[in-house]
Each structure stands twice: as structure tokens, then as C-alpha cells.
Amino acid sequence: CVVPIQGKADDEVLAEIAEMKKAAGRQKLYIELGNEVYTDYGSAEEYMVRCKELYPLIKEQYPDIEIGAVIVPDSLKFALPGSKYAKWNDIVAKYPNCYDAVIVHNYTTINDVNGYSTKDMLRQLYLDNQFLKSRFSSYKELFAGKEIWVSEYGNLIMDVFNSADLSEQSRKSFAKTTGVAICNIEKLFDMAAEGIDISCYHMSNDAQGFGIIQGADKLQNYYVFKKAGDILNNNGYFYNVSPIVCDTTNGYLHLVNN
């Protein structure tokens, strides 16, 4: 659950958490101190000062609540090396007593689909998945001993997202294909393999290409996530299978580790 903190007094934040706690009942509550706050705060130091104030207050009243602080996805950090984003995560790492976990959002962003083939899209999704997988070890090293929550992930097709015509959003089928759904599941299993503690696909009901369903209609994401849920529920472990190359030199089939 996201708790807005910017411009909020301590008692306002605690009152909102009290409502969340009541709604959660016996379920364990995980809260995020703001949503993508790196766009709102002038610096990570400013944000962490607020986290440092709120963390003990929340823990005093609700010691069982897990509290997450927001970090910047490495894709944004690398894209804007001279900005506040470049140093954000290193600064957050200097305040380990202000949170139980760090929160990162990941979206594969496709800015323009003009002339963009299905193969182009799947290639970008695959490469982005590999990039994200490579960054998990970086996050875990920088924030050693802390949980990693990927509380939002998905695909952002800007031509659809920015469309003012809602019927046009619903009509366009980018990101509603089986191939894209399989890439989403690959990302899910990569996170499980890398020990990510919480992951949350964004979002359940949506017409922009995010959705698992669109109104009453089940999209391709629905079927692959359902199958993934069955696999995870029925199995306590899994193995990574190394890719192989099929070599048919001289007419014989040889399977060679890649």
C-alpha cells in the first residue's frame, strides 16, 4: 500500500496507515513511503530525511508493518547520468535504518510504434528483461540485508498511453498479444529466480495494454499469469535450464551448451 508522505504531517500519515491496517485485518501490511517520489523531491537526501522521521513513528505504533523506501530504476539512472537520479540509490543506501525494503518500478517503454514490427517489440522486451535481471544483483549488493520489492512492472506503450481517445486505447492491441504475455511471465520467473521478495504486475483491469483483463474480456496476460500461478502454487522449487544450440554438422544432431 502506498502512503503519500510529501506535504503530509506526521499525524496525517499515521491516520492513513491506521485505516490501511484496519482494512488489512489479519493480513500483514507492507507500505511504501510514497510513489515514485524521485520525481517530486529535490534530492534523495530530502526524501531520506522524511523517511528518517517517519520510520520510528510508524514502527512504534505498528512494529509488524514492513516499510519500503523508493529507489530509482537503473534504466533511468543510466539515461540521465548528470541528474539527481544518478546518485539517488547510493544516497538511500546510506540510511539503512530508515526502511525494511527498497522499492523499484520497472516498465519496458516503447515510445513510438510507427514502423515497429512484432519482432522488434519482442526483441526489445527480451533485451529489457535481460537488463533488469542483470540489475537485481546490483540492487541486492547495494542494499544488502534489505528486501527488494518490484511493486510495479509492465509495458508502457506511449502511443496508447498518451491517446486522449479512450475508444482508441481499447482498440489498439499492442501489448495484448501472446508474445508480450510470455515476456511478462519471463520477467516474473526471473524475479523469483533472483530472490525478489515482492513483485506486482501493473495492472489487473486496463485497456492500454497493461491489463490482465479488459472489462469482461480475458486478455492473453490472464492465461499466462493463471498458468504461472498454478506452477508456483504446486511446486516449491524450480531449476534454471541452460539454453542449448542444435548442431547438425555432418547430418548428426548434437546438443551443445550455449
Describe this structure in words.
- The chain is an alpha/beta fold and 258 residues long.
- Strand 2, helix 2 (44-61) and strand 3 (66-70) form a beta-alpha-beta unit.
- A 6-stranded parallel sheet has the order 1-2-3-4-5-6. It has a two-stranded antiparallel sheet with strand order 7-8.
- 44% of the residues lie in helices and 19% in strands.
- Helix 5 packs parallel to helix 8 and helix 8 packs parallel to helix 9 (220-234).
- The termini are far apart.
Give, in order, the helices and strands. Answer: EHEHEHHEHEHHHEEEHEE
Spans of at least 5 consecutive residues with low confidence: none
Question: Structural class of the secondary elements?
Answer: alpha/beta
Strand content: 15-25%
Number of strands: 10
Profile the largest sheet: 6 strands, parallel
Alpha carbon gyration radius: 21 Å
What is the count of DSSP helices, taking H or I runs of 4+ residues?
9
Distance between the termini: 42 Å
In the sheet with the most strands, the strands line up as: 1-2-3-4-5-6
